[in-house]
Amino acid sequence: MTTATDQKTLDELCINTIRTLSIDGVEKAHSGHPGAPMALAPVAYQLYTRTMRHNPANPEWFDRDRFVLSAGHASMLLYSILH
Fold first, then answer.
1. pLDDT, tens digit, for every residue of 41-57?
2. Rounded CA gap, 19 and 25, in Å?
3. Is 59 part of any domain?
4. Structural domain range at position 20
5. CB of 12 within 8 A of CB of 66?
6. Is 11 left (phi over 0), alpha (psi -120 to 50) or beta?
7. What distance in Å separates the CA atoms of residue 18 and residue 41, rounded to the nearest whole number?
């Protein structure tokens, strides 16, 4: 059983991992803006882990929630989350 402190630590680790992946992706592409993905990492983590209904094993699930990221300069966030 995990405690609230353990869960908070795990959440922070996951969010920081998303941020790191975003920075690495922008750096490797020599293009992009790391600020938006870094700032939005907690929001995306919350959506994907606690809010959205989705099943990666069943991408054709009709009633799944969809995530639309309209800010193209923040697209590395989506790539990092799906990694």
1. 999 999 999 999 999 89
2. 10
3. no
4. 4-54+65-82
5. no
6. alpha
7. 6
